[in-house]
Amino acid sequence: MEPWLIALIVLVSVSAFIALVFFLWLFVLPRVIVHKMRAMPNPDGEMTYPENFEELKEKVTVQKNLVYPSIYPANKYNLYLPKNCNKKVPLIIWVHGGGFIGGTKDGGDNVMIALSAADYAVASIDYAVAPEHKYPTAIRQVSEFTAHLQAIYEKNPSIDCNKVIFGGNSAGAQIAAQFVATQSNIALAREMKITQTIKPSALILVCGPFSFSAIRMFAAKTNKSFAMLVNIWGRMYFGGIRWHKGKKEKQANVILQANAYFPPTFLTDGNKGSFEAQNKKLAEKLKSCGVSVEELYFDESYGEVPHEYLFHLHEETSQIAYKRICEFLEKI
Hints:
Helices cover 47% and strands 15% of the residues. The chain is of the alpha/beta class. An 8-stranded mixed sheet has the order 1-2-4-3-5-6-7-8, with helices on both faces. Helix 6 (171-184) crosses helix 7 (186-192) and helix 8 packs antiparallel against helix 9. It is globular. The mean pLDDT is 90.
């Protein structure tokens, strides 16, 4: 066989191998990781309940798996309404967590019931997750849900349509905050092709990540394996190898997008394995814009307070947060 032909065969073989490795790394590996992560138990534990939870449930009517119009899947929500309430009640629209790749509207059922028992209507919404549905699908689905509010008001006249509060935990906190940013910044709304339809009355953010570039920088300083996982996750959510360099990451940086037109905001986080520093930076930015902000964090005297601590309603820290959220909303 001619030497040039051997060289050509080797070159083609090597190129094919490199292309296969690149394909596996870019498309297959992220989906394998997602499936494994979705199958893993929540590292912060399942929902827990306070001693009086049965009493709280008796105060609330729950409508499960209602549908809101959307061009995307996972377009369902749960609606929690206080019973025997003789006044109009505000509506809390809650966006669940799950790292942008998982989670459901049912994952925070205990807190949704507790909030509704305090005389709030609560709509806990599902949304399509990555990598099957990349950014900004979730934010657009929040917008689609707000377009459905009039139909909800017509069926539930006890809801005060002039008092709509947005909230979320973990990834849902980021999604809720970014949606609020689109409603307060016409340029961002146009850039993301989201309609400005609502003026939020307040914002509740629990354990949210608000700067993806900051997470990537922290991972790079921590260890290579963690940094690799963060980069794979970024590709899954935003798409593209250089996801951290494009306009999408800047759009999603809530600290960057926060402005004077944000509603009064409540921020809280745990002190272990979460995003306390980012919450404090967002609070600082909002305060500098003149926005009313309340914060809740925990020092070492409380021990380790994990990410998603709010849903451990049997714990003292969760009860403190629940009380503070209710007091914050009462002021609004």
